[in-house]
Each structure stands twice: as C-alpha cells, then as structure tokens.
Specification:
Blueprint (H helix, E strand, L loop, with lengths): L16 H25 L3 E8 L5 H8 L8 E5 L5 H4 L5 H4 L8 E5 L8 H4 L5 H22 L1 E9 L2 H13 L9 H7 L2 H13 L5 E5 L3 H17 L14
Parallel strand pairs: 1-3, 1-4, 2-3, 4-5
C-alpha cells in the first residue's frame, strides 16, 4: 500500500547537480533517437501520463524529457474542465480520441484520472461511481495495451506542500511567471489532504503501476522521468524496417 507522505519528494544524498544534468541531456538525446525509431517502425506507441498537484512540474517534465524529439512524433494534450459536449458523453469519450496511434508518443498533462480526483475531492461523485470509474480506467488502459500495443507510463509528480507554496508564490512575484498564476490553485491547495487520499486511491487501485517521482528539485525530476522513459523505450526492442523497393 503506497502512502505518499512516506515517499521522498527530494533527491538522495550525494547527488551532483552538474553530473545529473549532463546525464539527463544524454538520456534526452537517446529518447529523441528512439522516438524516430518508433515512428519508423510504427508497431508501438507510448502514452505518458503526468499527474500531480499544481506547480509539480508537468509542463517542465514534458519539455525536458522530449526536447530532442521530432514535433511530428510527440504530441502533448492538457486536460481541463470538460466542455458541455464532453459532459454529455461518458468520461472516457474525450480521452479515447487523443490516445496515440502506432508510431506515436502522446503526453497527457493531467488525464482521465481527473474524473476520480477533483470530482471526488469536491464531492461531485459518490464512492460507487468512483469505484466503477476506476474499473473502467483499468479496462481502458488494458485495451490500449493489448489492442494497439500502447505502453502506458504513468508518473505521479510528488511535490511537498512547502515546495508547492514556494512555486505558487513565484507565480505572483516573478513577472515572467505571472501568466501561470491562477487564484483557483490556491483554493485547491486548501484540499491538500483530500487530494492525497484520492491520489493514493488511484495509485493503489491501478492495474498498471505508477512511477512516483520526487520533484522538489526540478533538475532531479527531469533526470528521474527521462531515465524511466528511456528504459521503457529500450524495452520495446524496436528495429528500423527493412528496405522495400521494386528497383532493379
């Protein structure tokens, strides 16, 4: 049973920022090479899910992990409040349209898990619906894996309340970050304990395991995420397709 408050939000002792940043660059370059290979082979796809509290670094992790990839092979989607049309369908309707095709990498900034997180925190759905949606999510992710050879890689970005407070204050005090400020983020912070309970439920009831990432230090977060993505891509054992030609 995973308890998030028992897991680290910062890096291990003795880690060198300079060496980690150098290694992260090498890893990101290798990811770029394997993304091209995935696109060429077109047998696999990768869905990367980032979940975490506001300011945990979902955008930053995406940018640093895939910075050497072709824009044509990696697409990111940010999930916000459903539109009226989306509300008129089942909660996975809008999600299914955005999953990756073979050869593609898709990054979800937030995801289908929002429908058992924020809705549960605010009491908009009851426990019965939470459990049924959790079962639907597990079935959905299994479908992606067996029917389309899509690997689902899910990261929970584990930030401490103290570090989140620092980052939210930056958005009000640093001019280049003003655009990130949202009064609603402060209101959601008031529900921290409820969110942790809901994240733990989702993590502990997922058929596909989550990767818990310590994110208080951004540079270590980048390394941690990129290393796992690289390991996942290398595990696919992809190969460039052979030459096909009718030339003589």
């Amino acid at each position: 049973m995973i308890k998030l408050n028992q897991l680290p939000t910062t890096l291990p002792d003795g880690v060198s920022k300079k060496s980690i940043e150098k290694e992260t660059k090498k890893i990101a370059e290798k990811i770029g090479e394997l993304q091209q290979l995935m696109f060429a082979e077109s047998k696999h796809s990768l869905l990367v899910v980032f979940q975490g509290m506001d300011s945990s670094g979902k955008d930053g992790a995406t940018r640093e992990t895939f910075k050497y990839c072709s824009p044509g092979g990696v697409h990111a989607v940010g999930w916000k409040k459903p539109t009226d049309l989306e509300f008129a369908h089942d909660f996975l309707w809008r999600i299914h349209k955005e999953v990756p095709a073979k050869g593609m990498i898709k990054v979800f900034n937030r995801s289908h898990y929002e429908d058992i997180l924020i809705q549960r925190v605010h009491g908009w759905i009851d426990q019965e619906k939470v459990e049924k949606r959790m079962a639907a999510i597990n079935a959905f992710e299994e479908l992606l894996q067996f029917d389309n050879n899509t690997t689902v890689l899910k990261f929970f970005l584990n930030i401490s309340p103290e570090r989140q407070l620092e980052k939210l204050k930056e958005r009000m005090n640093v001019e280049r970050k003003f655009w990130k400020h949202n009064d609603g983020d402060w209101k959601e912070r008031e529900h921290w304990d409820k969110y942790m309970d809901c994240y733990e439920y989702a993590i502990n009831n997922s058929a596909i395991p989550w990767v818990i990432v310590p994110v208080d230090k951004r540079w270590y977060r980048n390394y941690f995420v990129a290393k796992k993505v690289l390991e996942t891509l290398e595990g696919m054992n992809m190969k460039f397709p052979p030459l096909e030609t009718e030339m003589k």
